[in-house]
Amino acid sequence: MQEIPHISFYMKVLLHQFQHERTEVLSRLGLTASQTDVLLYVAMSPVGNICQRDIEHFFHLSNPTVTGILWRLEQKGFISRAADPVDGRRKTVRPTEKAKELLKKIYELNCSIEERLLAPLDRSEQETMFRLLEKMLTSLICHSTDFLSLLKKQQETETLKGILENQSQ
Question: How far lies 12's CA from each of 8, 9, 18, 69, 110, in Å?
């Protein structure tokens, strides 16, 4: 009897391929994956409420790393930073109009990659796959110390998806 391959292998290869395609597309737009992730986070957050420290905590990145990402995004005209009117020590981060237009393109490109990924599956297979992935994810995150962080990130992603879908209509 043939042994069932380890799912971790397939998941790793699938994630690697998805990230490779995403990175290739983003590089044509002049962005890295990290810059895009931070830009998406800033765009989905309430305007004027995000500061550098929030980004550091959310992504578990160091201050110098986030400083570099924000500096590059600002140089490219995708974010603006301003002093917080309530706490002058804080600088808030906001997406520019240029960023909002770019995020629409990024959303469309991600959808395109996902469509290619799902193309070989019929609707029923896709529904089964999503149901099984949700079960697996739930099993993993319920045992994770970062459960609430992952849940929050997933909810924010769904919120952003809704915002971008509404903007493209």
Answer: 6, 5, 10, 26, 18
Q: How far, in Å, CA of 41 to CA of 54, rounded?
A: 10
Rounded to two decimals, the pTM is 0.69
- Pair 93, 42: CB distance under 8 Å: yes
Domains and CATH numbers, the chain: 18-168 (1.10.10.10)
CA distance 93 to 43: 9
On whether the CB atoms of residues 35 and 69 are closer than 8 A, the answer is yes
**What pLDDT, in 10s, does the model give residues 122-165?**
999 999 998 998 888 888 776 665 555 655 666 665 655 555 55
Reduced to 3 states (helix: H, G, I; strand: E, B; else coil), residue 90 is coil
Separation CA 95–CA 41 (nearest Å) = 10
